[in-house]
Amino acid sequence: MCCTLNVLVYLLVISHFVVEIACRVEFTNVKCNSVDKEFSDFEYCFLKSVNRTYKYLSLKVNLFQVPVTNVSTKFGLYKRFSGYKPFLYNLTVDACKYLKHQKSFPVVSYFYGNFKDFSNMNHSCPYDHDLIVDKLTIEQINNRFSKLLAFPEGDYMVESHFLAYGINRAVVKVYFTLS
Ligand SMILES: *[C@@H]1O[C@H](CO)[C@@H](O)[C@H](O)[C@H]1NC(C)=O
Ligand SMILES: *[C@@H]1O[C@H](CO)[C@@H](O)[C@H](O)[C@H]1NC(C)=O
Ligand SMILES: *[C@@H]1O[C@H](CO)[C@@H](O)[C@H](O)[C@H]1NC(C)=O
Ligand SMILES: *[C@@H]1O[C@H](CO)[C@@H](O)[C@H](O)[C@H]1NC(C)=O
Asked: Which atom of ligand 1 is nearest to the CA of 51?
């Protein structure tokens, strides 16, 4: 049901554009913002271009009040027209529940699959250590995009809010271009 609905929404949104299928995806920026520095903060958060074809994203979050047993994340995909406008998805996910029952949440798995192999977060709750995303490359995401969905060309941004115990603690925005 959840999945079917998303496909429908996707088709509706797509039908409003002259669709030129994008075949190349590139990170353009990443912004990490700790909303509650008593709870957590970013030790680092950056994009690095090693050369023309190798660019990666790394970030590390220090958690100051461990163990963390209640995490949810809210995320959406935005596309730039004049300013970034909501494009697709507006999901809130109970991360602890998701990590226990991954197969029940296909849309979440689509996003989560983009970075889980590059992070130390893919275990069930609680979290009692720093969180790391290490050298997430664009190739991984590019493959997933071109295989699973066809989005029109343009500038996009994925905005994620991380909540613990129902309180917003951090915001991560990842910008990328499809061309
Ligand atoms: C880019 O850097 C990566 C990692 O050092 C290397 O494996 C790859 O061959 C380089 N590509 C080019 C085109 O230099
Ligand atoms: C998600 O919902 C919030 C609150 O209603 C809204 O501000 C935001 O623009 C929405 N994002 C997307 C991607 O639809
Ligand atoms: C975490 O990721 C690794 C590598 O993809 C995988 O083998 C492992 O099963 C994952 N663990 C969980 C709890 O999903
Ligand atoms: C997490 O905390 C929020 C806010 O206190 C609460 O509404 C929610 O039920 C909690 N989730 C779990 C799985 O306990």
From this structure: 1
Type of residue at 174: V
CATH number of domain containing 67: 2.70.220
CA–CA dist 102, 113 (Å, integer): 11
Q: Which helix (H) or strand (E) holds 34?
A: strand 25-34
Q: Specify the residue with its C-alpha closest to ligand 4, atom 14.
A: 70
Closest ligand 4 atom to 72 CA? 1
Whether 50 lines ligand 1, by a CB cut-off of 6 Å, is: yes
pTM above 0.85, yes or no: no
Nearest residue CA, atom 8 of ligand 3?
122
> For 62-87, what is each residue's pLDDT tens digit?
999 999 999 999 989 999 999 999 99
Backbone dihedral angles phi then psi of residue 106, each to the nearest 5 degrees: -60, -35
Pocket lining: 122 vs ligand 3, CB cutoff 6 Å: yes
Structural domain for 31, as ranges: 2-178
Looking at the 3D structure of the chain, how many domains does it have?
1
The order of strands in the sheet holding 40-51 is: 40-51, 54-63, 131-137
